[in-house]
Amino acid sequence: MSEPVGNKVAVLGAGSWGTAFSIVLADAGNEVSIWARREEVAEAINDGHENTDYLPGIELPHAIRSTHDPEEALAGADVVVLAVPSQSLRQNLPTFLPHVQPDAVFVSLMKGVELGTLKRMTEVIEEVGDIRSDRIAVVSGPNLAREIARREPAASVVACADDDVATILQKRMHSQAFRPYTSIDVLGCELGGAYKNVVALCVGMAVGLGFGDNTTASLITRGLAETARLAMRLGANPLTLMGLAGLGDLVATCSSPLSRNRTFGEKLGQGMTVEEIYASTRQVAEGAKSCSSLRALAAKNGVECPIVDSVDEVVQGRMTTSQMMESFIARNPKPEIE
Ligand SMILES: NC(=O)c1ccc[n+]([C@@H]2O[C@H](COP(=O)([O-])OP(=O)(O)OC[C@H]3O[C@@H](n4cnc5c(N)ncnc54)[C@H](O)[C@@H]3O)[C@@H](O)[C@H]2O)c1
Ligand SMILES: O=P(O)(O)OC[C@H](O)CO
């Protein structure tokens, strides 16, 4: 990526994070065009400067415009930010790709692993778009959308195989409240982001069952060990997992009532079924799908992942949340560090 000639960013997906991240981009001096799947969301953003469905009560900067037309959103944009649910990325890309500028750089905000293919989101973009990996970045960190939209200070990681591209993107998204660090460990950042959602589901289940801080801290810590085990087997830098896209995001998501994944788990712990929870919200809890893909990825690579295995069993309705907690304690004793 050469130094940008324009300053337009297209954000594809007008959910909570696509909209909150648009505020960061606008504050950092970019002109932002958000593609919204539903026309009424685009109209609310243009007419009232508010995403009434996903970020009610937050006034959006006037540098943010929205459209239902992908061609209009992408026209003139040298940075293309993808913020749709992970499992819908593959089906959405063919609608977007014909309108992307030839030299544009892609940024994935998504935190999931595709069911079936077991691919990370940057891998799906690379494959479907036939795009070189050094033009695809990921942004991941402890970034709960509503807090970012309120401009509460937070840090994150922008990772790309090409360090120069990561540095250019870092400048494009560094605002008064948002501090991005660069990295070349795309794999570590993406796995950290996808895995913490499953751990947050598990922590939520424990909270829903009425357990306290010893339980949640134990799950967070063993969840991090599990994440690092799989990520390192696949080639990630272990220090990435100790950083913002690993531990940082894990702590934020597992601790916050704003987290959709933790809330989903909490409802399971309180006795709701998966179907009842899906019917009660429009927002995505990525971990409820990625528990299956991460489980398969771990099995394929011979990595032991009891938390992901058990969360998947609960989500599939083959184990209760109480049985899951009992099974963790009953596992064969072993050293903490192997
Ligand atoms: N919300 C956060 O705090 C946050 C922070 C960091 C990363 N993320 C990640 O960002 C991604 C997007 O999450 P979000 O929080 O914006 O989700 P969301 O549930 O708030 O919004 C999802 C958006 O995608 C649209 N959508 C739903 N199904 C679709 C489909 N089949 N095709 C196209 N669009 C569809 C919805 O209309 C909505 O605009 C997820 O991978 C999530 O893990 C979210
Ligand atoms: O609301 P969640 O659980 O999707 O988590 C949001 C972000 O990923 C936190 O960094």
UniProtKB/TrEMBL annotation:
Family matches, as PROSITE patterns: NAD_G3PDH
Reaction catalysed by this enzyme: sn-glycerol 3-phosphate + NAD(+) = dihydroxyacetone phosphate + NADH + H(+); sn-glycerol 3-phosphate + NADP(+) = dihydroxyacetone phosphate + NADPH + H(+)
Residues annotated to bind sn-glycerol 3-phosphate: K111, G141, K196, D249, S259, R260, N261
Keywords (A to Z) from UniProt: Cytoplasm, Lipid biosynthesis, Lipid metabolism, NAD, NADP, Nucleotide-binding, Oxidoreductase, Phospholipid biosynthesis, Phospholipid metabolism
Pathway the protein takes part in: Membrane lipid metabolism; glycerophospholipid metabolism
Positions of the Glycerol-3-phosphate dehydrogenase NAD-dependent N-terminal domain: 8-165
Entry annotation: catalytic residues: K196
Domain of life the protein comes from: Bacteria
Keyword Methyltransferase in record: no
InterPro entries in UniProt: 6-PGluconate_DH-like_C_sf, 6PGD_dom2, G3P_DH_NAD-dep, G3P_DH_NAD-dep_C, G3P_DH_NAD-dep_N, NAD(P)-bd_dom_sf
EC number(s) reported in the record: 1.1.1.94
Positions of the Glycerol-3-phosphate dehydrogenase NAD-dependent C-terminal domain: 185-325
Record Pfam families: NAD_Gly3P_dh_C, NAD_Gly3P_dh_N
Positions with a binding annotation for NADPH: S16, W17, R37, R38, Y54, K111, A145, R260, V284, E286
Subcellular location: Cytoplasm
MF term (GO), any: glycerol-3-phosphate dehydrogenase [NAD(P)+] activity
Role played: Catalyzes the reduction of the glycolytic intermediate dihydroxyacetone phosphate (DHAP) to sn-glycerol 3-phosphate (G3P), the key precursor for phospholipid synthesis.
Entry's family note: Belongs to the NAD-dependent glycerol-3-phosphate dehydrogenase family.
Protein name according to UniProt: Glycerol-3-phosphate dehydrogenase [NAD(P)+]
Species assigned in the record: Nocardioides vastitatis
Gene assigned in the entry: gpsA
